[in-house]
Amino acid sequence: MKENLEAEALDVCLVEAVERYDEVYELDTTGRSPEETAAAVEEIIKGKGGKYRPGKIDWAEGYF
Length: 64
Prior knowledge:
- This protein is mainly alpha-helical.
- Helix content is 45%, strand content 0%.
- It has 3 helices and no strands.
- It has helices at 2-9, 12-20, 34-45.
- The radius of gyration is 13 Å and the shape is flat.
């Protein structure tokens, strides 16, 4: 668990994704219904996913 939290704090997965792919999105599904999550994914697919670009979510919030 400690290793996972450290990786999240350093954005290891995000950094690797950004290095490998042209388009990367972050979608926090905490507290979202499946329908809300699906609607957000549809926005991304339709090219309206700007608000889901990386760097806007603090994944470590609440852990420390």
